[in-house]
Design a protein that fits this description.
Elements lengths: L11 E8 L4 E7 L6 E7 L6 E3 L5 E3 L2 H11 L7 H16 L5 E3 H15 L1 H11 L5 H17 L4 H6 L26
Length: 189
């Protein structure tokens, strides 16, 4: 394995351990040339997938790109990283087991949306805003309505709904509560 710091090719494995419920191996490596330490992951890959973009262009599937988009949607959300990694691995397994070498980007987006919906509603709305190309606030309101309908259909009780954080859409104007009460300048004399 080539060192990412000095490009030396004589790196050594210092520690190996299974991760992601034995679906991957995490290896800690060290470069004897520069002393740099880094981590690599080894995963089973059933087949080489090709993503067909909306424009018709074909690109190789990149697990890291999928993970990056999911991590952006989950930014500043308190979600266990192991759950996120399992979700990403599950999506990749679903894609690989579809049987086709070519996968349309819409299929990937739909799988991510489904997984995020069950994991975190805020991340779901964030991802949906990019995936569905939201243009105005009503697009957000529509997705929030979908979540509310799904919760109602799933039999969410009022007590469970009370525990869920309230999500509000702001218009960019300050609310009456956020305006300062005293707008007169302070006397500094």
């Amino acid at each position: 394995m080539r060192c990412p710091y000095c490009a030396g090719e004589n790196t050594q494995v210092k520690d190996s351990r299974p991760t992601e419920e034995n679906a991957a191996i995490r290896r800690r490596r060290v470069c004897p040339d520069c002393g740099g330490r880094f981590t690599t992951f080894e995963r089973v890959q059933l087949r080489e997938l090709v993503v067909v973009k909306r424009s018709g262009r074909k690109v190789p599937f990149d697990r890291n790109k999928l993970a990056t988009s999911i991590h952006i949607a989950l930014r500043k959300r308190n979600i266990d990283s192991d759950r996120v990694e399992r979700m990403i691995s599950g999506i990749v397994r679903q894609l690989e087991s579809m049987g086709d070498v070519e996968v349309h980007s819409e299929q990937i987006g739909a799988l991510v949306m489904e997984a995020l919906k069950g994991l975190d509603p805020v991340a779901y709305v964030r991802f949906a805003s990019v995936y569905r190309d939201f243009r105005e606030a009503s697009d957000f309101a529509e997705v929030l309505g979908e979540i509310a309908r799904d919760d109602a259909e799933a039999g969410t009780t009022a007590a469970a709904a009370a525990k869920r954080p309230v999500t509000t859409i702001t218009t960019g104007r300050p609310s009456p509560r956020s305006r300062p009460k005293n707008t007169e300048p302070k006397n500094t004399e």
